[in-house]
Design goal:
The structure is a homodimer of 457-residue chains. The first copy, chain A, is mainly α and 457 residues long. Chain A has helices at residues 2-18, 28-41, 43-52, 55-62, 67-76, 79-88, 91-104, 106-115, 118-128, 152-164, 189-193, 201-207, 224-234, 254-272, 277-281, 285-312, 314-319, 322-351, 359-389, 392-422, 431-455; strands at residues 145-147, 173-177, 183-188, 218-219, 238-242, 248-253. Chain A has 3 domains: 2-129, Alpha Horseshoe (MgtE N-terminal fold); 145-253, CBS-domain (Roll); 273-455, Tetracycline Repressor, domain 2. Chains A, B: Its main location: membrane.
Chain lengths: 457, 457
Amino acid sequence: MAKLKDLKHSQEIIESYLQDDLDQELSPAELARHLRHVHKSDVDLFIDYVKQLSSESLGDVAIELPDHILKDVIEEISPEQLKDAIEELESDDATDLLQNIEDINEEKAQELFDSLDDEYQEDIKRLRRYDDEEAGAYMQTEVFVAKVEEKISDAIARLKQMKEEGEIENIYRLFVVDDYETLRFSIPLEDLITSDFSLTFKALVEKAPEDEYQPIFARDDDTIDSVIETVENYDLSVVPVIDYQGRLVGRITADDIHDIIQENATEQIYNLAGVNDEAEEENTLFEAGKSRAMWLFLNLFTAIVASLVIGIFDETIQAYVALAVLMPIVASMGGNAGTQTLTVTVRQLALGDIDFQNAKSTIVKEVSIAGINGVIFALVMGAIAFLWFHEAMLGVVIGLSMVINLLCAGLFGALIPLTLKRLDIDPAVGSTVLLTTVTDVVGFFSFLGLAQWILLG
Amino acid sequence: MAKLKDLKHSQEIIESYLQDDLDQELSPAELARHLRHVHKSDVDLFIDYVKQLSSESLGDVAIELPDHILKDVIEEISPEQLKDAIEELESDDATDLLQNIEDINEEKAQELFDSLDDEYQEDIKRLRRYDDEEAGAYMQTEVFVAKVEEKISDAIARLKQMKEEGEIENIYRLFVVDDYETLRFSIPLEDLITSDFSLTFKALVEKAPEDEYQPIFARDDDTIDSVIETVENYDLSVVPVIDYQGRLVGRITADDIHDIIQENATEQIYNLAGVNDEAEEENTLFEAGKSRAMWLFLNLFTAIVASLVIGIFDETIQAYVALAVLMPIVASMGGNAGTQTLTVTVRQLALGDIDFQNAKSTIVKEVSIAGINGVIFALVMGAIAFLWFHEAMLGVVIGLSMVINLLCAGLFGALIPLTLKRLDIDPAVGSTVLLTTVTDVVGFFSFLGLAQWILLG
């Protein structure tokens, strides 16, 4: 029922959109969402709608579609229409879309690429040379640029022409380069629009306070994470990107930074829970289920390791069944305290709030908090165990093992992500499983071991 | 050692900054970070540096400081210097800073507020009337605005003057209002700079394609989350904010949206792990430790509930100690599978990818994945248990309870956040504890109950 209502609603919106009959603007993301609803119930209708999209809309929508739907698009839409759609996109988006198509059908992607304008092919080739983590992979090559000696009015006339030809949009700053294409100045449009247009850029800069137009830039081989930090620190709307020789090669705009921040956050949250963000986005039961099962297998393995530890003490448990009742508490508290530490460390590493320079003070802080909480919960749980089973030494045993396990939780909760980061592995991936292995094993071993030694020793 | 090196490095940077002697620009966020390093080791030196900051820097830095450091600033810095710093800030930041000061010292905040210009007081009063979740709370009142009948050149002359007086910065768009202050058009500077300045705005708009300058806006009582969605969907650099009568009252810029996205993500990640983001930011052991202890108390309570369930079956365990060895595996697998579902649901709710309209299909999807994985792990774990303890029926018991617990994990992993959201409670807060209570109780009860019935029955 809900599905049917969804379909009807989406159908209406898409049809109004196609007839240019909507009261409100519809963003590509929203249009893609409605098209996905239609695809779920009626693939033919979906294709029919996609065929009616303008080149511009088709490109914008295509980059929003997950692989299994994009697959239908590239099979059913003519190569000419796809080529036009790609050419309407900015170079970074065009590169991404071609990459997505290549992941589905390499041959088709090559054909499409070959059909593009030479200049466009050059841009895409250049962008594809960058690694996924590099700033260059996220930039677009379309920039509003002027020469130092040029007159402001000439640059504005050029901007007007570029805009009329649909070559460029979302301009917030003009970048000024010298004869070697080296980036020299970065001038916000708000300063340009209030300036005397008959001046050269050189004259404009000389009239301004020193360093006023000194550009804040990124290198194309900087990590995208460091670019995000720069954008956030300086509240930028756009960052120019330069190559190793200082030449302006592109720009990254704030809306791309938004998307990366959101994606990074989703990836972190998912990875901490043993979920793969890309598999989830595929939106098919099989992909999501398979990737989750792989994590659960890893977890099963570590749970069995913990059980082996319990197995060592089976006779102790048979003699004292209260131990079986209480042992999950120690493991659970360790797991939770460790997850707190782990999560804070992973997130603060990602935000740049902690690094290797202050790793030691992070560890000291985390172990201190865990130690203090360990003592508190040792006293609380010791008292509860005593009142529950009327056995003072049982309280001592659970109290001691609580302190030991929470200290380990704090230590490894901080150490695991810091070590992974040092090894250049994403500290969010797999760290939760590693941590709970430690807290389960230490929790069971310390509790049952102390019990054997103190209660039965 | 690391601390000392940190201090030295920060001292050098701050001193070069104060002498205007830095090669590179230093953002307020970075300056605040170095000042925090100094504060950690030497409060007097910290105050000494802060006193030397310009009003502009002082304001920018002050909003970046955590409460316990800001406290020292407001105690040691003269009210005049603080007033100047607040007046240098944009209205939204000024409001935030005053709020932070009020949290520390209400009287001081009132004194500072009273010392501000009347116009400034009005703006702050208006912004403070908004709820934390409302768009209005995040807007600044400084906007570049023009009347429909005005000439473009007149508006640009006004912008020039406002910029010279330091009243406004980061202008990306001009907002055009009618005689009732109603927002009519939103014109990017890139279009303005390439236009004929002798035209009126009315003439400019009439020459453009229909709807070209139709504003995408937010209402001041919209939720900030919906504003974030709008900004992302339309790749905006700035959103105008209107009141219930359609009058332009302020704007929200992309850099503020960045900060909110990051903060929301941090809050979600932390809340899922039982960590309070505000307490962690305080950066004092006591605050962070206290807030974490409160979550651990809640977890202790639920762990005890799970133990009570185990306690019901103490005789069964004594008869079959293998049950004690195996039972944590069932609980652990349920907890992990449930956390996967919970995390995906929480995050997709936050990103607007799922809502109540498609809640049912989310639940169906999650239960299906959990069910399939339940069957897989039932077979795997059943076989392992059989091989380990040479008891076929033990394999059947753990297999059945695995299916039951994973189904519950999928069901409650989706239901808990959806229900919390429906009740207008943040679905990330407390949901993990609720979920693991379910998976622990169901895990232990189904496994031990089935064992009692099948093995001993």
